Automatic annotation (TrEMBL):
Lineage top rank: taxon: Eukaryota
Family label: Belongs to the AB hydrolase superfamily. AB hydrolase 2 family.
GO molecular function, one term: palmitoyl-(protein) hydrolase activity
Phospholipase/carboxylesterase/thioesterase domain: residues covered: 26-159
InterPro entries: AB_hydrolase_fold, LYPA1-2/EST-like, PLipase/COase/thioEstase
Pfam family, one: Abhydrolase_2
Name the record gives this protein: Phospholipase/carboxylesterase/thioesterase domain-containing protein
GO cellular component, one term: cytoplasm
């Protein structure tokens, strides 16, 4: 059965457990792919949904997912924020060496909600789409989650294949995503399968503003990796055409239509 375009009603069951913002392409019937967006540590889905809207990728339905928990007020230094400061980690862990929040607090709660509820129940079971129809964009901690989901899919696909004996064509369609674009988020080792004989992920990846050792960690787990370093230092969202262009080119390539 061919896939169908999701409706607002399809996503309604997610709202209490995984708050999100959905933006349909125009017209909605033109949907051919999905972009799932994750914000950075201490941020919120609203500004990132505006970023997804600004990308205006043809035929792409964008789903911006809010962090699965709120940062403790003690970490905010008394700041009053317009929106809750959210994160995707299983816990809030302080790195004893740096005093900063740990880059890999574990992402199992977020992984299960995104993979089982959003992707598994809504996009695949209800609407008939496949993993290879889905792209991710993530910033900071959200970029780590995006890379981790693509990495951990190797283990999920292997278990599914063995336990259910899926046909080869069906299995192949769900062993990789269409692509992942990550700004400033290292691959979390907690989301790397532990099997020593694991193959590299076949999901195409673009990483921006990562340190050299973090880039090498991604390359060790993914077959196809593009690396972009902006002229300026530091990690932030793209601020001009030169910084946005690599993202647009990557998404264009993954959609099969150059920009």
């Amino acid at each position: 059965m061919p896939p169908r375009v999701p409706t607002e009603e399809d996503f309604s069951s997610l709202t209490p457990i995984l708050p999100h913002t959905v933006q349909f392409p125009s017209p909605p019937e033109s949907t051919t792919a999905f972009l799932i967006v994750f914000h950075g540590l201490g941020d919120h889905d609203e500004p990132f949904s505006n970023f997804a809207k600004g990308l205006n990728l043809p035929g792409v339905l964008a789903i911006t997912v809010r962090g699965t928990d709120v940062l403790p007020a003690a970490l905010l230094g008394g700041m009053e924020l317009e929106r809750p400061a959210c994160h995707y980690g299983d816990d809030v862990i302080i790195d004893p060496e740096t005093g900063d929040l740990a880059e890999d607090p574990g992402f199992e709660k977020a992984r299960k909600l995104v993979m089982e509820k959003l992707i598994g129940e809504v996009l695949i079971e209800k609407c008939g789409w496949e993993m290879r129809d889905i792209m991710f964009f993530g910033f900071g901690q959200g970029g780590s989650l995006a890379l981790g989901l693509a990495s951990s899919l190797r283990q999920t696909a292997r278990v599914t294949d063995i336990s259910q004996g899926q046909e080869e064509s069906s299995t192949a369609a769900n062993t990789s995503f269409k692509g992942v674009a990550c700004i400033g988020g290292p691959l979390p080792q907690s989301m790397v399968p532990t099997a020593s004989s694991r193959a590299k992920s076949r999901t195409n990846v673009l990483v921006c503003q990562l340190e050299e050792d973090a880039v090498e960690a991604v390359k060790s787990e993914f077959e196809h990796v593009k690396v972009v370093q902006w002229k300026r230092r530091g990690v932030s969202m793209p601020s001009d055409r030169d910084e946005v262009l690599p993202l647009m080119q990557f998404f264009g390539e993954r959609l099969g239509d150059g920009f």
